[in-house]
Amino acid sequence: MTAPALVLGIETSCDETGIGLVRGHELLTDAVASSVDEHARFGGVVPEVASRAHLEAMIPTFERAIASAGVRPQDVDAVAVTAGPGLAGALLVGVAAAKAFAYALGKPLYGVNHLAAHIAVDQLEHGTLPAPAVALLVSGGHSSLLLVPDVAQDVIPLGSTIDDAAGEAYDKVARVLGMPFPGGPPIDKAARDGNPEAIGFPRAKYHDGTLDFSFAGLKTAVARWVEARQAAGEPVPAADVAASFQEAVADVLTRKAIQACQRNGVCDLIVGGGVAANSRLRSLAAERCADAGIRLRVPRPGLCTDNGAMVAALGAEIVGRGLSPSPLDLPADSSLPVTEVLVH
Ligand code: KG4
Ligand code: ZN
Questions:
Q1: Which numbered atom of ligand 1 lies nearest the CA of 182?
Q2: Cβ–ligand 1 contact at 12 (below 6 Å)
Q3: Cα distance between the two ends of the chain
């Protein structure tokens, strides 16, 4: 048997420049340079700043990845890159770099979907994905439930947020509480010392029978609650607010994820995306999956947030299937639909 292809993965859809090297399900290296500090004072990612940071970080991150994997550029068998969805200018930097690497090395280029990559990355940790599986994808830009008969070529949307993404709600609530950007990690940390039942924040769409989400009302409810305390001159119990907000998010996400599995007769749930790093989401998902007889797979937190290894992992799966590569005039598509796993 010949060794699986060595796949270079490039990720630049938001504020992380990620370069990963993967062989089959084996992760060789995952180099990430983040421009998050440059965005922090704006309370959100500034597209132009992100694009420039990707441009500056691309070659050093590539060199770091190659060196730490102990391979040579010419050992790379295929180049995979996030073609979308994401910030248009940021995606363009990664796509242009991927084209240059593929052309210079004489290797095939695969433009892949960022969302499918968040699912495929789990193979690096837990092996071949069960099929079909349901995926709960929760990040700064997306919150979706997906039916995944085949992560390399068949991803079917079951539901998604009708307004804010879960990560966006974390980032906005953190801002209200005076915590830094991105808001997920500080809220997760603060919530450990808080009471999740202290405040009954709303759980939108909880009983509506759909597999959609809505987090805009929750975000506003938290802001109003905090403002009312401030207006009354009372101290804001940040830990309780964080814990109660986090409980509302985790409750809705896990409830609907279990429903998605049950309605589709699926026994395997994969949780991915930056918010999958959240400790309460992970523990509540484990609890509810165990009760419902559903097997749960969640990548380790470092593989949940954006990185190049996830793109390489999806690329490796696609290459392994012998699917034909993308053209060298591959476009970046900021609103690439989740159903388009590989761009042609
Ligand atoms: O997947 P990701 O790295 O980038 C996008 O594709 O958007 O997700 C970033 C999001 C941010 O909103 C961040 O606040 C959130 O993931 N996040 C978390 C945690 N770590 C990152 N949210 C909750 N708890 C965490 N521990
Ligand atoms: Zn992402």
A1: 14
A2: no
A3: 29
CA distance 27 to 22: 5
Q: Which two three-digit tokens encode residue 59?
A: 């070659």
Q: What is the pLDDT of residues 326-339, one digit of tens each?
A: 999 999 999 999 99
For residue 3, the tally of other CB atoms under 10 A from its CB is 9
Ligand 2 midpoint to CA 13 (Å): 8
Q: Please state whether the predicted TM-score (pTM) of the whole model is above 0.90.
A: yes
The Cα 59–Cα 96 span in angstroms is 12
Cβ of 11 less than 6 Å from ligand 1:
no
Q: Cβ distance 343 to 111 under 8 Å?
A: yes
Cα separation, 209 vs 259, whole angstroms:
9
List CB-based neighbours of ion ligand 2 within 5 Å: 139, 306
- CA 121/CA 113 separation, integer angstroms: 12
The span from the CA of 13 to the CA of 54, in Å, is 10
* CA pair distance 158, 177, nearest whole angstrom: 33
How far is CA 262 from each of CA 76, 92, 133, 265, 279, rounded to the nearest angstrom? 41, 39, 11, 5, 24
Task: Specify whether the CB–CB gap between 321 and 304 falls below 8 A.
Answer: no
State if residue 122 touches ligand 1 by the CB under 6 angstroms criterion: no
Q: Is the CB of 299 under 6 A from ligand 1?
A: no
Is there an atom of ligand 1 within 6 Å of 22 CB?
no
- pLDDT 10s digits, 35-66: 999 998 888 889 999 999 999 999 999 999 99
The reply to whether ligand 1 has any atom less than 6 angstroms from the CB of 86 is no
Our mutation pick for probing the ligand 1 site, out of 305, 306, 336, counting the most ligand atoms within 8 A of Cβ, is 305
